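During the no-cost extension, the postdoctoral fellow (Dr. R.K.) reprocessed legacy sequence entries with the updated structure-token encoder. One reprocessed record is reproduced below for audit purposes.
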Amino acid sequence: MEKISREQMIQMAKETRKKVTNAIVPDEEMEKYPVNMKKMLIPTRVGDAEAYYSYKESCENGDVLVINFHGGGFIRERTPNDELFCRKLNHELGCKVLDVDYKIAPDHPYPTAVYETYDVVQWVYKHREEFGVEADKILLSGHSAGGNLAIVDTMIAKAEHTYSPAMLIIDYPPLDLYTDPGEKPCQGEGIPVERARLYNLYYCEREQQKEPYASPIYASDEQLKEFPPSLFITAEQDNLCIEAEDFALRLARLGNEVTLKRFQKVGHAFTIYRREKHEEAFALIVKSIRNNINLKTDMK
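Re-encoded structure tokens follow.
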């Protein structure tokens, strides 16, 4: 691909975003899950991060906090679909949620989002008493690009001995930005190849795409040992399916506790966009969190 300037990428990304449609979230659907919500600005080394802190009026498991990272190919912001997912967690688990609207590429290329999300999590751990949560009940959730960030943040935290999430919830993540999308197994309903190439380029330079903090698939065994319990959800018709499953199985071979579930006949982002089998996937997320963290049950 011909060398493209960052300014050109910014203009191209605007056009790319126009081609991507979100699932509509009707007001009545959002209103089924009323929460208290507060927009926060959290200091990081790359500037303040925007985050949305939510909880139910009656917060049965108020000492539990899910920190959520949205998807969008690293180039799209938080959407109402992400808010709905977090509200549903508030209600199903009676927990608190912090939904991080990290800075997006190409305006803020790699490793901006890595540093920003890592610093947010570290800040939360240092201020956990203000949230009323326990250190061993803070977990990370990430969808697509957000799954990449949740994994990378955990790798950095392990290397720097700062924090250890209680659990990781990882939905259909891109973990190999270096291999050309056209060379990946075609599963049927993944991100279109040309768009995937642009996403990768918008996020980081070609020479950076093989770095483990951009593409965790290239991490060393040492970087992946002693990971927290992890749930990986993949979609059979997603072109990212195989790399996510290979990574999950590698974590397991290194002695980590991993649950891996492939959902058949569905494509990328089915969980967040509430496509077929999204309810089954959400139920698995809720069950996995309950099984890994000491939660009160019967929240409804």
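The mean pLDDT is 95. The radius of gyration is 18 Å. The remaining legacy entries will be reprocessed before the final report is submitted.
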